[in-house]
C-alpha cells in the first residue's frame, strides 16, 4: 500500500498559504449569548456561548441552527454588567454545524467601546493555575 502524506493531498495545504479575510485579531472569550432572527419565514431563537470576539465579529457555539447570510440580533451577557450588550445588526458569515461566525454590521460608538473593553478584559485575565 502506498503511503500518502498530508503534503501529497491538495486540500491539506498549511493555513499560512491560504489567504486570510481577518482584519482584526480574534480574542478567545466565553460569554453567554442569545440570538434571534428569521429563517425561511420562521423565527429562530437560540442560546449559546461566544467562542471569540473581535472588532468585526463574534464566533458562537449555539443550540439552534442558522444559515450563512442570515441576519441576527445578538444579546451578549458579560460579567459585571446589569444588561446584556445588544448587537441588533449582525450577519452570519460562516456555519459549521452549530458553530458559526457573525459579522457586526452596524455598531454605535458606545457599543463598540463596550465590546473592546470586554474583549480586552477577557484576554487579560490570568489563566487558572498559571
UniProtKB/TrEMBL annotation:
GO molecular-function terms, A-Z: cyclic-di-GMP binding
Domain (PilZ): residue spans on this chain: 21-116
Classification via InterPro entries: PilZ_domain
Domain of life: Bacteria
Protein name in UniProt: PilZ domain-containing protein
